[in-house]
Amino acid sequence: MIRISVGEFYLGAEEKKVLTEVINSGRLSEGKKAFEFEKAWANYIGTKFSVVVNSGTSALIAGLIALKKKYKIRDGSKVITSPLSFIATANAIIHSGLKPVFVDIDPKTLVITPQNIREALKKEKGVSILLPVHLMGYPADMNAINGLAEKYGLLVIEDAAQAHGSLYKGKRVGSLSKLGVFSFYIAHNIQAGEMGAITTDDQDIFKLLKKIKAHGRMCECNVCTRKSGVCPPLDSYQGSDDFDPRFYHDMIGFNFKVMEFQAALGLTQIKKADEIFKRRNLNVRYLNDGLTSLSGILQLPYYSKDVSYLAYPIIIKDTKKVSRFKIRRELEQKGIETRPLFGCIPTQQPAYNFLKKQYKNKLPNAEYIGANGFYIGCHQYLEKDDLDFIITIFKKILN
Ligand SMILES: Cc1ncc(COP(=O)(O)O)c(C=O)c1O
Q1: Which of 90, 242, 354, 389 has its Cβ near the most Cβ atoms within 10 Å?
Q2: Which among 370, 380, 371, 369 has a CA at the least distance from the CA of 311?
Q3: What is the structure's pLDDT at 218?
Q4: Ligand 1 binding pocket includes 308 (Cβ within 6 Å)
Q5: DSSP reduced 3-state for 199
Q6: What is the spatial distance between Cα 345 and Cα 342, in angstroms, rounded to a whole number?
Q7: Distance between CA atoms of residues 4 and 379, nearest Å
């Protein structure tokens, strides 16, 4: 039976080779491969720096904590973000001691709109940060969002966990604000099993992130040089041989470090990034062309050549004709995997029930899509036959 997965990660010859290299190097915990990945990722996104961490969620937390530290943002300050996202976005805000404020999204591109942010800024006191999510690869309107940030004295951090390589006015998302956050979770466009990264042009933030991810230790070397002698003296410390910065901590941090396996796998995918982007993008266009006859019933994904699609999002327009439950069940029975489009966090996620009353009827687009949206795969391993199979099955179910 044909199986069309939402995402795949084939471990081919190259991937197996680098995993073996890591085993043979004798170094499994974070080291040279992680450093190499950071340089390659910053280069791909177009920022001066990148820091790897063990997940996209950790990247969000580390990024938010770095902003809090550098700009002395108080606990309980507000972060305006999207209600339609994987729950990690909101969870990270809360775990960082901040408060999410949700504004509604554009139903076509699934991202928060500058107009809705502006309205919220007129009402809300104590907002410090704007956190747009480039959902499914669609870039938020960063020029307008940065303009609002400037006007109101706010910081911007992009959740680009689902948008590796997407272009906004010729620049890659994740390079358009103070910080960009990525997840390399399996089935994302660039994947490493589990891993995350933060991109930035700000050297202070870069140094803070290095500390935050490693329990606030005072090391400043990218790769440990301890084996070749004593640690180099830090600016802040007129060293003695007894000073071991690996075990001196001037900040309370986390352990967000990665394994060399993850960075090595990620590096193999960066090399293929342009091809992955292109294949996914063309697959979306092909599916859209094949499914146009169903566009009275389904909202097919908005197509742009600049979007690096995480998946193929579909929203049911005519819920009398078909329910999400029915179509998902039939697709799954035919071997086409589906996922719901996350849900509206404050009103449809039980963990956020404490916000349900506050947001009732305030986020109609996110709520509609949260209840009637789902996605299927459009990944780089799908062949023409797979795409034709998807088109045939949709037509069978809906005609
Ligand atoms: C929009 C968004 N933000 C954050 C994350 C968290 O990434 P991770 O699963 O690597 O922790 C994800 C994961 O899929 C995501 O989709």
Answers
A1: 90
A2: 380
A3: 85
A4: no
A5: strand
A6: 8
A7: 10
The DSSP code sequence of 147-168 is HHHHHHT-EEEEE-TT-TT-EE
Tell me the CA distances in angstroms from 26 to 19, 226, 259, 297, one per residue in order.
Answer: 11, 17, 12, 56
Q: Is 7 in the pocket of ligand 1 (CB under 6 A)?
A: no
Contact 205, 190 (CB under 8 A): no
- Asked if residue 53 has pLDDT above 80, the reply is yes
Any atom of ligand 1 within 6 Å of the Cβ of 91: no
**pLDDT computed for residue 239 by the predictor:** 54
pTM, two decimal places: 0.97
Q: Which two tokens stand for residue 246?
A: 């690996």
If you count them, how many residues does the chain have? 399
Q: Region 186-193: what's the mean pLDDT?
A: 95
Mean pLDDT of the chain: 95
pLDDT tens figures, 322-344: 999 999 999 999 999 999 999 99
Give the nearest ligand 1 atom to 188 CA. Answer: 14
